[in-house]
Amino acid sequence: MHIIVIGGGGVGYELARNLSTKEQDVVVIEKDTNKVKLLEENLDIMVVEENGASVKALQKAGAKNAQMLIAVTQVDETNIIACMMAKRMGVPITVARIRNQDYIDSADILPGKQIGIDFIINPEKVAAQEISHVIHFPDASEVEYFAEGKVKLVGITVGEEAGITNKPLNDVPLPAGCIIVGIDRPNEEFLVPGGKDHIYPGDKIYLLGNAQLLRSVSWLLHHPDTHAHRVTILGGGNIGYRVASMIEMQRKQHLAVKMVEKDPERCSMLSRDLSKTLVLHGDATDLSFFKEEEIEDADILVVVTGEDRTNIVAAVLARQLGVKKIVCEVIDPQYVPIYLKLGIDSLINPHLLAASRILRFTRKEDVVSLSVLQDQNAEIVELILPDKAKVVGKKIVQAGLPRGALIGSIVRGEEIIIPHGDTRLQAGDRLVVFALPQVSEKLTRYFAGSKKVSQEQKKKLVNSQEI
Amino acid sequence: MVRSSVIFFLGNLLLALAGFMLVCAFWSLARGEPDFIYLLISVVITGLAGIILRVILPGKKDISLSGSFTLVALAWILAGLFGALPFYLYGVFDSYLASFFEAVSGFTTTGATLIEDIESQPEGILLWRSMTQWLGGMGIIVLFVAFLPRMGIRGINLVKAELPGPITDRVVPRVAQMAKWLWIIYFALTVILCIMLLLSGISFFLSINHALTTMPTGGFSPLNDSIAGLGNPPAEIIITVFMIFAGINFALYYMFLKGDYRAFWRNEEFRFFLGMVLVSMIVVSVSLFSFYEVGEAFRKGCFQVASILTTTGYATADFNGWAPFLRTLLLFFMFIGGMGGSTSGSMKQARLLLLLKVAIREIYRLVHPSSVTSIKLGKKVVSEEVLRNVSGFVFLFLVLHVISTLALSAMGLNLESAFSASIASIGNVGPGLDMVGPEETYQVVPSGGRLLLSLMMIVGRLEIFTVLIFFTSLIRRY
User: Fold this and answer.
1) Do the Cβ atoms of A376 and A422 come closer than 8 Å?
2) Fold of domain A127-221
3) Which residues 6+ apart lie within 8 Å of A234 measured at CB?
């Protein structure tokens, strides 16, 4: 697949990296010389040093033969124009990163076909959604939903006191509707476990199953469910603002929200737009301010200042003061190990999240969604099994799936099935497949229908324009 | 320091070499030549060594940046060491060093030979000799990047280390694909050349050998008198044209094939190269009027210009006997070479062109001290970083040339021989002047000099930096 990515910043880099390791032909258009160098030296891709919103650059990047164009520069207008031009040049799928809500609202009036943008992605919104999932489920470090919320994936770090450690998985009393799909052990390779594998304290396990059943994991952790009442958000940028307004919109669960922002003008804007949130003007890395405003009393602290170093300092201070649950934004994935050392495992990487949302369009299967785990150790592909797929009608044991791939659950109509070796796969099944990155691409062989999937059909799988 | 992945990769390399050697062994078996058994022994030794290396460390796939330099440098040294086996075992030479020299001269597409009577050698050996040039021409590592799946992201570093020229054009998104295309084009041109030579009435064996050594601008010929020995004027013209083809950036062929028909003409380096070829062909041919009659003068003049300028090193005439002006001119051609991204050696047209522009800019700057100018190649601005790299390269190239000239004269070669042998080796040309002229061999060079020149050939083929980084990494702690 020939894919053009415009903008080699955070999201663009992540996309190019992921796609190039899967042997896709990636051309990145980037005008900043330093970024061009970084891209050229580290990735197996072609880089065109130009302004992405120019016909010349698109021609150079081979837009004629491209199957997809992803415009993810910092500038909304550039992305929109690039998509419009690419569409005219015949690129079947275009994705634009648009941050300004005003533009997204207007997109409803002008359907995508007229403007030339098939999908809109807003990394900040995606990150905010992800953060609000974790806020509502504070025991987990990572939460993902599949099949319209029917199936849930939860990542939990197993503590010393948990009853499930040090015995084979076969003996762990899991409820019928869920399954452990992955074990992430520090300094070891990611494991897609079998019945004989053990869980040890300190492991991060990934549970997949019925969303209803997984509403609580207290049975697993042997302590009562934590319920959040007070949330403090450090950083009133786009992500922080969106998280706060999402919490305000939740009627059922009443949460008290404090928000800390450094810039006084931004503060007054926030206080105008948010009604229930207490907006504080102050520095997220100032210890005396922390104490004064009793930040340590927060049940959940969300650190989203938009700057890695500030985030780290703020997180360290909060941990020092005894905040139990910290959700932290990470921009440069290099810092992930530092957070893990501090015991902060709810990490949100906006770039990675946005990239993984876009990645699904690059697959040959009928992929409904694709998620990448926080530390990029595994991918979860949600797909619909077409009539002609190779595995239709077979039992799972006969399907011969590669090692490192696991069908975590099957949604058939309203029913959620946790499959066994002799579960038969049917056409139309909605599968949630857990796979290591190196085998992820091989899944095509088993789950794709015809060789060529029409782009129209793909677009139909996603019902909204905003992804 | 040497990471497991490097060793694993070197194991693969030896296995591949063994495979190509086996082809030569089969040829010799089919022709009932006496060298079959020796080639087979070489295959076994090389193959075993390869398997052992692979077994010791079934390494991870990703190679670090410094690891990739180590890999490329070691790969070429190992290729020389094992490529020498057939020559040594069959008894072409008594010493292993001489065999090593011949093999390195092959892989680096230099074409300097130590064999006095080439025609008396069996066909299997001669085919292997030509094969080394063909493999080295487009690059052994590039071949691997092309056909071994997933070399990791370092593939581009490996290709850069082996593909000559200051700027590596990225015309295809993935490195593996680019490497594959380069080899496909290279292979196709070789086949076309081989067929054309056959049509011009040359025997199958000679056609294959000359095709295998023309496309990499190598210059080994299975005939004592090089191309002159063919005695076939149409073949000379065909080879002249293909030597120039081989001196062109292979990325341009790709762009041409993809429908960009103006790719050649738009490339400034190509225009410069073509201009230089045509002008010097006319100058040399006209100067030859006093030696030969007009037709022959043109044929021999053009051939020799193409041969030396692209650093092939074939001869249709003993240019050692030509007028002093022509000998000097050819000697200086050895410093230039073909285009970057071609299979030719030496400094390359692009570097010459860039330095020329830098020099003009300096003059201009003296007159207009506050002027701001950027140097362009075609329409693309060349970054200061590349310019620095080019100046560094040319300086080191000349320094190494001076050192090896000095060393060779210390070993008793006269000025002309030492000077030309040195540049002919580091520039991967092959024959020099006087004692190492086209009619002679490198037999006059003593053992120490042979080792030095072998090293210079590898240094020249890998464009200096790779090998220097490798040697400094041996000394440096980190």
Assistant:
1) no
2) Alpha-Beta Plaits (3.30.70)
3) A240, A260, A284, A301, A302, A303, A304, A305, A314
Which tokens in the block code for residue A395? 């039992």
> B403 by DSSP, 3-state: which?
helix
Cβ separation A45–B173 shorter than 8 A: yes
* Residue from A93, A33, A87 nearest A456 by CA: A93
Q: Is B251 helix (H, G, I), strand (E, B) or coil?
A: helix
Which of B145, B141, B152, B150 lies closest to B178 in space, CA to CA? Answer: B145
Residues of chain B in contact with residue A2, where contact means CB-CB under 8 angstroms, are: 173
Q: Which contacts of B368-376 are long-range, i.e. CB under 8 A and separated by 24 or more positions?
A: none
Amino acid at B101: F
Contact B173 A2 (CB under 8 A): yes
What is the end-to-end Cα distance of chain B in Å, rounded?
9
Please say whether the structural domain A358-460 has been given the CATH code 3.30.70.1450. Answer: yes
Task: Quote the CA–CA distance of B180 and B176 in Å, as a whole number.
Answer: 6
Q: Are the folds of A127-221 and A230-348 the same?
A: no
Secondary structure of residue A306 in the 3-state scheme: coil
Amino acid, res. B395: F
Nearest chain A alpha carbon to B169: A46
What dihedral do alpha carbons B408, B413, B418, B420 form, nearest 10°? -150
DSSP for A347-360? EE-HHHHHHHHHHG
Residues 6+ apart with CB under 8 A from B84: B96, B99, B100, B102, B103
State whether A20 and B153 contact (CB < 8 Å).
Answer: yes
A117 has a chain B CB within 8 A of its CB: no
Q: Does A59 touch chain B (CB under 8 A)?
A: no
Burial of A102 from C-beta contacts in 10 A (0-12 / 13-18 / 19+): exposed
CA angle centred on A295, ends A293 and A300, rounded to 5°? 150
Closest CA to B206 of B186, B227, B188, B192: B227
Give the residue carrying structure tokens 């280390």. B161
DSSP state of A425: P
The CATH code of domain A230-348 reads: 3.40.50.720
* Fold observed for domain A2-121: Rossmann fold (3.40.50)
Scanning the structure block, which residue is given the tokens 């000239």? B405
Buried b or exposed e, range A64-84, using 16+ CB within 10 angstroms: eebbbbbbbbeebebbbbbbb
* Cα–Cα dist A97/A93, whole Å: 14
- Give DSSP secondary structure letters for A28-95: EE---HHHHHHHHHHSSSEEE-S-TTSHHHHHHTTGGG-SEEEE--S-HHHHHHHHHHHHHTT-SEEE
pLDDT in tens, chain A (467 residues): 889 999 988 889 988 988 888 778 899 999 898 888 888 888 888 888 888 888 888 888 888 888 889 999 989 889 989 998 998 888 888 888 888 877 777 656 666 667 788 888 888 888 998 888 888 887 788 888 888 778 888 888 777 666 677 777 777 777 777 788 888 887 777 888 777 788 887 788 888 888 777 766 666 665 556 677 888 999 888 899 999 988 888 776 678 888 999 999 999 999 998 888 889 998 888 888 888 888 878 888 999 998 899 999 999 888 888 888 889 999 888 888 888 888 887 888 888 888 888 887 777 767 777 788 777 778 888 888 888 788 888 888 888 888 888 888 888 888 888 887 788 888 888 888 888 877 877 787 788 766 555 555 556 555 566 66
Question: In chain A, which residues have their Cβ closer than 8 Å to the Cβ of B383?
Answer: 33
Burial class of residue B369 (count of CB atoms within 10 Å of its CB; 0-12, 13-18, 19+): exposed
Domain ranges of chain A: 2-121, 127-221, 230-348, 358-460
**B177 is written with which tokens?**
């694909």
